[in-house]
Amino acid sequence: MRTKTAALSGWGRYPEVDANLARPEQYRELAAWAQQASIARGMGRAYGDAAISARGTTVLTERLDRFLGFDADTGVLRAEAGVTLDAILHAVMAKGWFLPVTPGTRYVTLGGAIAADVHGKNHHHVGSFASCVRAVELFTASGPMTCLPGTPAFNATLGGMGMTGLIGEVEIQLKRIPSSDMLVQHVPAANLRESIALMHAAEHDDEYTVSWIDCLARGSKLGRSVFMRGHHTDGALSAGPREAKIGLPLNVPSVALNRYTVGAFNAFYYRWEGRKTKPFRCGIEPFFYPLDGIKQWHRLYGKPGFVQYQFVVANEAAEACIGDVLKAVSSAGNASFLAVLKRFGAASDGLLSFPIPGMTLALDLPLRAGTLALLDRLDAIVLAHAGRVYLAKDARLSAASVQAMYPRLSEWQAIRRELDPDGLFVSSLGQRLEMAP
Ligand SMILES: Cc1cc2nc3c(=O)[nH]c(=O)nc-3n(C[C@H](O)[C@H](O)[C@H](O)COP(=O)(O)OP(=O)(O)OC[C@H]3O[C@@H](n4cnc5c(N)ncnc54)[C@H](O)[C@@H]3O)c2cc1C
To answer: PROSITE patterns in the record, alphabetically (predicted)?
Structure first.
């Protein structure tokens, strides 16, 4: 089994870690990798160090991408864990099926979607990716096992960040759609209170809801946003999402992103998108995957990279907590123009799954002097409101914070010890956060 060493990082390009890499060509090789210290890696879209092995080999799953079965009548799909959501959409959309839950990029694998138990713009009742997973084939050191919903191994693996074993095959239930078109409507909100109220307003209830939020607005405009709602509508079925034609070939110099340039962009975007108050039709790409429209967009933050900070707090704490976070970010002038506010309803049974009922805010912060200290202040605010930070986006949390944020961590650790008694499946993130002692 050949390996090579390379400097590896997540989508945020921070931290960079020297890693031992292997790329199995055949599905059956997974069993051998599960006998030794390893961690699986999908498309590397987790922002920090989640998909890097701390103790052994990082196993790339890109060649484990076979479709194993799809029933076009029932929408049940079986595939290897390296299959991407993009490939699934190309295989099923023309037949009138779609992903019940999809993150903001379709360039993630089934394995990554399960390990992070990803969430999407879905109605708050829908829940996370776990809601559509029917079975997971997991390779542990003692061999392959089938994890079914409701079992301890399933609940430890969904959201378990790859640290229960190597996910091999996956079975999911897709969702029917009438066409590849969306009917979308935007509503501007002048401040944070209005932004949160829109997410709870019965007249704006829709199949999907999300808000873009202006993180640099201050004073009476703090938390202003554009609320975006939409649903699948009648029309034609396409063969799948169109691939981006434009890309960022080079790193953008980090000075290009500052309070003034990003502030001007945010003010323009707020007015431009806020005008679209009448329902309009669009394809699934701009609605679900706006960032996939520019290849390598993470180069926008320059060579030092960036950190995405995503947290969730209960509804009662949302206005105070999000308000404090926005004040800290806007007064630090740390330029973020990709900021998203979302309402969660259902939590999954995943012991480390991120969603809990409440409001979640995700924002990108370029790495520069003071960013890590600012993020520590944000942790303190989130903890004071009994919130939690999303591990798939994390690159710098502390072990103590994770323990306080994830009350079921010790339950997860007990199941993990049974599945992995020799501590083989530990990522760089898991080591940093002392999740697998
Ligand atoms: C632009 C962008 C938008 C995003 N939007 C959202 C969003 O809206 N909602 C959301 O929830 N997330 C979002 N994410 C995060 C992303 O969905 C998750 O990080 C996801 O896990 C990435 O999947 P991947 O295939 O790239 O996995 P990687 O980044 O390679 O790995 C992520 C984790 O999955 C584990 N893993 C991967 N494959 C396997 C396997 N076969 N077996 C066991 N473990 C495995 C890894 O060990 C690691 O812990 C976004 C990321 C980006 C870059």
So the answer is: FAD_PCMH
Q: Are residues 159 and 222 in the same domain?
A: no
Burial class (CB in 10 A: 0-12, 13-18, 19+), 303: exposed
pLDDT of residue 257: 72
Q: Specify whether the CB–CB gap between 253 and 302 falls below 8 A.
A: yes
Q: DSSP 3-state assignment of 365?
A: strand
φ, ψ dihedrals at 328, nearest 5°: -65, -40
How many CB atoms within 10 Å of residue 291? 12
Q: Which of 215, 188, 249 is nearest to 336 (CA)?
A: 215
Inter-CA distances, 64 with 43, 155, 170, 227, Å: 12, 24, 12, 38
Q: Give the distance between the most distant pair of CA atoms in the chain.
A: 60
Residue 373 CA to residue 363 CA, distance in Å, equals 16
C-alpha 108 – ligand 1 centre gap (Å):
6
For atom 20 of ligand 1, which residue has the closest CA?
Answer: 112
Contact 396, 375 (CB under 8 A): yes
pLDDT score recorded for residue 11: 94
Q: What per-residue confidence (pLDDT) applies to 268?
A: 85
- What CATH number corresponds to the domain at position 305? 3.30.70.2520
C-alpha 139, offset from chain centre: 23
Per-residue HEC secondary structure of 209-278 comes to EEEEECCCCCHHHCCCEEEEEEEEECCCCCCCCCCCCEECCCCCCHHHCCHHHHHHHHHHHHHHHHCCCC
Q: First-to-last CA distance in the chain?
A: 28
Total domains, the chain = 2
CB 134 within 8 A of CB 149: yes
Ligand 1 neighbour 409 (Cβ under 6 A)? no
Same domain, 148 and 230: no
Domain of residue 375, residue span: 181-397
The rounded Cα 338 to chain-centroid distance in angstroms is 14
Q: Which parts of the chain have pLDDT scores under 50?
A: none
pLDDT digits (tens, 9 = 90+) for 381-417: 999 999 999 999 999 999 999 999 999 999 999 999 9
Ligand 1 centroid, distance to 265 Cα (angstroms): 28
* Per-residue confidence (pLDDT) for residue 264, from 0 to 100: 84
Counting beta carbons within 10 angstroms of the beta carbon of residue 201, is it exposed (0 to 12), middle (13 to 18) or buried (19 or more)? middle
Report which secondary-structure segment, H or E, holds 418. Answer: helix 409-419
Q: What is the pLDDT of residue 248?
A: 63
Do 124 and 240 have their domain in common?
A: no
Whether omega for the bond prior to residue 15 falls within 30 degrees of 0, making it cis, is yes
